[in-house]
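Structure ticket #2291
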Amino acid sequence: MIKLFRWGINLALGVELITLLVMATLMIVTINSDEQLISGWSAFTSEQPIEQKINYDEHLEIVTAVTNEINIVFAANNFQYYFLKFFEAIVTLLIIILITALLKRIFFSLNKENPFSSSNLKRLKAIAFAVMAFTPFSIIQSLVYRNYISNHITIEGKNFVTSLNFRDLKPNEIWLDFNADVQYLFIGAILLILSEVFRNGLYFKTDSESII
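Resolution: structure written out below.
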């Protein structure tokens, strides 16, 4: 079973590294071309919206919705937008690669030493903090995207609201959604609790070896 996990971790790490190289290559190619990157961001209104025409840096786009939640779809080919999209993807991938590499070290250590080791304790804590990093990253991502949309997109007769308060919206206001993936904090907290189990196991292991 351990060999199967080791093979799977090696495969995942290889795929992630290849994906990182592909992303870097794609970024270089895209920046030197006229290719447009497309994004979407959810928003809310106080009224039942209908099909709206929006203007994005002199490019006409269409927004449709069936509830008070709308999805703003936009595209651009400027460097600022390229950097925003690729930075988001590369940082996310780097965190995933770090977590995978740490898991690999843990699984590979199982055949060489007791799992309750100081090295594995540090690795598990590092994984916990890496997972928790997705939450502040998602908050920063939301702030950047909301600022970008409010500065580059205009909808006829509508004003974007970027404050955290989304209640009591006026008919002419659209509140840009704020995404904060707090579930990663809970996952990281669980891993930190598990690291305490490792720490206690390491303590008893060291204590028993000193007695022997």
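Closing remark: The chain is about 60% helix and 15% strand.
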